Automatic annotation (TrEMBL):
Family: Belongs to the enoyl-CoA hydratase/isomerase family.
GO biological process: fatty acid beta-oxidation
CDD domains: crotonase-like
Claim: Lyase is one of the keywords in the record: yes
Keywords: Lyase
InterPro entries: ClpP/crotonase-like_dom_sf, Dienoyl_CoA_hydratase, Enoyl-CoA_hydra/iso, Enoyl-CoA_hydra_C
Single GO MF descriptor: lyase activity
Entry keyword annotation includes Protein transport: no
UniProt-recorded name of the protein: Cyclohexa-1,5-dienecarbonyl-CoA hydratase
Organism: Paramagnetospirillum caucaseum
Pfam families: ECH_1
Source species, domain of life: Bacteria
Length: 259
């Protein structure tokens, strides 16, 4: 039985308590807003202390993983708090002591993709659409700027960050973001868990995860602090960043002044 710890996230244990299940449960958009971020952060903090746990699976209700972060929370009066909380979650995921599996169908964009990228394994459907469209709004994706170059070739990461385009499941797997492209990502993730981590020592698995991510997690943590400062102190002081966000909220074309 799922235990809803908020209006946006369902939490329960599966596989005889070996797997923590986290389900984004505010379809169809599953917006990664302050409430969603807090719920995920809390659930992961509790799970990290369970010595018998062997992994986490994040999936979603509805046809889409997430349309992204709340654009309203990106406005100048809220963006500092929003970035601090989102980046705390990303770091908690990057540092999580056990494999975090992510199952994605439909759109997985912006802050939603940043959350998915912070996990360890990603299973996607063929029709999934993954992308960082922030540049289209006149801003950039801070966490993705740190995570994408760790998950795929730099030239491909820069393509997604500068163009704002989305890629499908097959391209995500080819570029290294996704581990597998399958019709049922949730069942594929469960099968991978059952055939691997579920059979292993939880203690040994923690050391394996730490060893595999040693260096990578430190690079992400160091860079994300710099990128957050660049976003808040540089980007958000520009006319075009605020104009792009306002234009999105007002459902009109942005009027760029290149300053």
């Amino acid at each position: 039985m799922a235990e809803a710890i908020s209006n946006c996230l369902k939490v329960w244990k599966d596989r005889d308590g070996k797997l923590l299940r986290l389900r984004l449960s505010r379809p169809k958009a599953n917006i990664v807003d302050a409430e969603m971020i807090a719920a995920l952060t809390s659930a992961l903090a509790e799970g990290a202390s369970d010595q018998h746990l062997r992994g986490v699976l994040i999936d979603h209700e509805g046809p889409h993983f997430s349309f992204g972060a709340s654009v309203a929370e990106h406005m100048p009066d809220q963006c500092a708090a929003m970035l601090a909380s989102l980046h705390k979650l990303v770091i908690a995921m990057v540092d999580f002591p056990l494999p975090i599996l992510v199952a994605v169908r439909g759109q997985c964009l912006g802050g939603g993709l940043e959350v998915a990228l912070a996990g360890h394994m990603m299973f996607v459907s063929p029709d999934a659409k993954l992308g960082q469209p922030e540049i289209v709004l006149g801003v950039f994706a801070p966490a993705a700027s740190c995570l994408l170059p760790e998950r795929m070739p730099r030239v491909a990461a820069e393509d997604l960050l500068y163009s704002g385009r989305s890629i499908d499941g097959a391209e995500a797997a080819r570029l290294g973001i996704a581990n597998a492209v399958v019709d049922d990502p949730e069942n594929a993730a469960l099968a991978w868990f059952d055939n691997g981590p579920a059979k292993h020592s939880a203690a040994s698995l923690r050391y394996a995860v730490k060893a595999a991510r040693l260096g990578m997690n430190e690079r992400v943590k160091a860079k994300i602090a710099e990128v957050e400062a660049l976003y808040l102190n540089g980007l958000m002081a520009t006319h075009d960043a605020v104009e792009g966000l306002n234009a999105f909220l007002e459902k009109r074309p942005a009027l760029w002044e290149d300053r």
